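Objective 1b: paired records.
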Amino acid sequence: MANTLLARHAEALGLFGERVHMVRDDQWDAPTPCTEWSVRDLVNHLTGEQLWVVPLVHDGLTVAEVGDRFDGDVLGDDPAAVWDRAAEAAVRAFREDGALKRTVHLSYGETPAEDYCRQMVDDAIVHAWDLSRAIGAEERLPKSLVDFAVRDLAPQAADLSSSGLFAPPVKTPPNADAQTRLLAMVGRRA
């Protein structure tokens, strides 16, 4: 199970990274399906999330101990390079011996590192679609990632929008494919 999770984590970050490298100079201010975020905001958000992994998983720090180190724009003048470094470090941190058995100290409390990794995978998958749509890239997500996220998010689908992190779910036809159902769970229209 851990190997599958780590494989999906690397695959999701790889997919998002491919899209980051496709962003043209004139697309950084373009809107995304995340209505309050531009392409740059979206990439900054996911890059910032990866930057948090090393201090939380590898170093065992709390959110309070990390402080505001990753607030604001973390992308600088070379967003793709910053993304690459952050993603590679996050993959390494989760792959350390025993990393998934650790507890991480998140803003909402102590969480098994395995659950934290799952959340990171789900977020990268959904935001890879968001970024694809924003820049006009291929929107079809790999089946392995869609199946992972559907299995992971479906049990909590009814509560996702109440978290404040997702838009309300979108109705889908009964014969909707897995990707459409996934996107609908998190308030996106395919």
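Objective 1b, second protein:
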Amino acid sequence: MSGSRDTVLARIRAALADRPGDDDPGPVRRGYRSSHLAPGTDLLGLLGANLSDYRASVHRCTEAELPALIGRLLADRGARTVAVPAGLPDAWLSATDAARLHDGTDELTPQHLDTVDSVVTTCALAIAETGTLVLDTGPGQGRRALTLVPDHHICVVRPPQIVPSVPAALPLLDPTRPLTWISGPSATSDIELDRVEGVHGPRTLEVVILDGEVHTP
């Protein structure tokens, strides 16, 4: 067995003999366009339209209107408990009577998380061209389970978090962090193409896009 292994490794080393060493070659040059969008495209509107295509419920409001909107969305859902990730602004939940269960405490063990009605988070980035939210467990987002177990997820997107495309998003993300990419509610289909929602994540995704200016990278 060891003889065969040595033979295979020797062939690999021979095949790689003319390749560059382990020194850092520097940044990779990418000649392709980072976005197909025309200059001046309304990224907030495009993000909302693409999220809607994925059957997410999209809302627009100002920062001042946000607490009242979140309170109404939770009330419409009949949410009695809401998971709160560390770093989420307290003011965002000031208009709801739902019990707040804070991440990282005994209030949100795996057993408790399965009984939570809703979760409210922000995101790391939102990609307008694909209607995708990216979470990296940073402040206001919580651990991955926090947004995969509850059946109702409200995600707030600030304008500076919106980028036009996937190529524009990747340099802004840390590949060593656990990244969750969300395009609409969790959904799958069987061989008969019957769509089933809520299998791998929340059945209902509501995205609140705050009004403001997008800073294109």
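The first helix runs from residue 2 to 15. The chain has a mean pLDDT of 87.
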